[in-house]
Design brief:
alpha/beta; three-stranded parallel sheet; two-stranded parallel ribbon; 1 helix; elongated
C-alpha cells in the first residue's frame, strides 16, 4: 500500500501490490509504466480516512516513551 499527502510519482517499471491513496492531493503519475493491482483512491473519502488514521497512529507512536517490558517474569529492554 502507498499513501501520500500530495502526490504519488512512479519512475520506472515497478509493480505495486495493494491500494494507492492520495489525500488531500490528487496527483498520481507513472502508471504506466508502473503497474498496480489494487484500487487507486485520489482525493476521495477512503484516502482521507486513511490519512486521518495514519496521522493518529503516528502521533500515538511519537507520544510513547521507551520503557522495559516484562512478560511472564522475563524482562526485556
Amino acid at each position: 500500500m502507498v499513501l501520500a499527502g500530495s502526490t504519488v510519482t512512479n519512475s520506472g517499471a515497478t509493480a505495486l501490490t495493494g491500494d494507492l491513496g492520495v489525500s488531500p492531493g490528487t496527483a498520481v503519475t507513472g502508471f504506466p509504466p508502473g503497474i498496480y493491482s489494487g484500487a487507486i483512491h485520489v482525493g476521495d473519502p477512503t484516502s482521507a480516512i486513511g490519512m486521518t488514521d495514519l496521522t493518529t497512529a503516528y502521533n500515538d507512536a511519537a507520544g510513547r516513551t521507551v520503557a522495559s517490558v516484562t512478560l511472564a517474569g522475563i524482562s526485556a529492554d
